[in-house]
Design goal:
6-stranded antiparallel beta barrel; alpha+beta; 32% strand; globular; 1 helix; 146 residues
Length: 146
Amino acid sequence: MGENEYEKRSCVRFKIPGATLDYQKKSLFPKPGYIEEFCPVMDISRGGIRFLSQKPMKPETEVTVRISVPGERIPFSMKGTVKWSSPNEGKTYQYQAGVQFHPYGDKKDENLPQNMVKIMALEQKFIENDKEDKESPGSDKDEFQI
């Protein structure tokens, strides 16, 4: 980012090595199962997630993502809206997408407040790891470039 540009995101993004997600679109007649599984997670924050996909996703599509974190026994699910999808040319996964999470709360279509606590704990754990990696030489490789 240039000197005069500013970060639009209010939440810190961080990487979780080896994390994947499954997703399904919200519909009146939902199909059982997930549309795509084991999509690599590029980064996540309290407000959203960026991941790789084999299929393009239409912006403003409502989705549920089930996030699997290495070392955690149970995946957690988040509801959100696709904000963008773009080609990932020349890579194993043909697209990448960004999903903005719905607000946290107890109402329908909101995310469980305990999921925010979960993401905050992951943020603490992996931001520390990310800082250590950046301090070591030769750590600027993109883990998902294939």
